[in-house]
Task: inverse folding
């Protein structure tokens, strides 16, 4: 199935919005809850699956839904269609600070592998599936690197990354990366998870137990602020149930507690 041809425009800097322009009859698919605003001619419907050929038929839909349930994703994807007479627009917002990356899948081999929470939206005809790391044992300890999302097609797909985004072009080189810092990579890149050094480095180095290894020829996108890292920092400085907190800046923190009467 040839993907619908979509035009788009990205607005903003650190909390970006992508606006998709749909011709009459064109459809864009998105994760549930990603929509920010839409014009009056846009209709939407929550469906099981992405609507691609790989997802057609009862067995295809059941397999797709089963994978999404295993990974904690919503079993529904929202399909936004221009049901009006002229061009209409629908916009999708980034879920946390970072950048929206547009990908023309036909220009990068028709396949892009990304973190399971990176996908934002894509043209109808794009297959959105779940892919598991081939090394099961390492995968369980590798965190974000175990479960990946695979986008297949020849049209536009947009993914989201946290913080600053770095694009690297590999030509047979090997790149070792924190598993959470990978946004995704194109066809031609071999992905694996390996132990991070010796036991002392693994437990006291602060870089995690495993690192991802990317090797081959293709494009790799990296992010400086994975959502898991952002969430950990917020939780580390959040007030405890008792109302006290361990905030940065002990003088100001102590003064604040005195003012509050603690």
Result:
């Amino acid at each position: 199935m040839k993907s619908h041809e979509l035009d788009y425009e990205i607005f903003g800097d650190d909390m970006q919005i992508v606006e998709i322009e749909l011709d009459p009859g064109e459809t864009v698919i998105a994760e549930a809850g990603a929509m920010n605003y839409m014009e009056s001619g846009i209709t939407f419907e929550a469906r099981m699956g992405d609507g691609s050929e790989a997802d057609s038929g009862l067995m295809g839909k059941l397999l797709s839904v089963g994978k999404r349930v295993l990974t904690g994703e919503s079993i529904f994807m929202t399909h936004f269609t221009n049901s009006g007479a002229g061009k209409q627009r629908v916009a999708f917002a980034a879920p946390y600070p970072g950048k929206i990356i547009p990908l023309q899948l036909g220009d990068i081999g028709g396949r892009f592998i990304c973190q399971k929470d990176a996908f934002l939206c894509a043209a109808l005809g794009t297959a959105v599936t779940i892919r598991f790391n081939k090394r099961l044992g390492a995968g369980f300890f590798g965190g974000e690197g175990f479960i990946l999302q695979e986008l297949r097609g020849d049209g536009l797909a947009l993914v989201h990354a946290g913080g600053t985004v770095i694009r690297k072009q590999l030509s047979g080189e090997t790149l070792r990366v924190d598993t959470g810092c990978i946004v995704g990579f194109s066809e031609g890149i071999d992905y694996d998870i390996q132990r991070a050094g010796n036991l002392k480095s693994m437990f006291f180095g602060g870089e995690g137990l495993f690192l991802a290894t990317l090797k081959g020829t293709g494009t790799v996108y990296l992010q400086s602020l994975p959502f898991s890292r952002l969430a950990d920092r917020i939780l580390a400085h959040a007030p405890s149930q008792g109302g006290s907190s361990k905030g940065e800046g002990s003088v100001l923190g102590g003064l604040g507690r005195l003012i509050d009467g603690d």
About this structure: DSSP finds five helices and 17 strands in the chain.
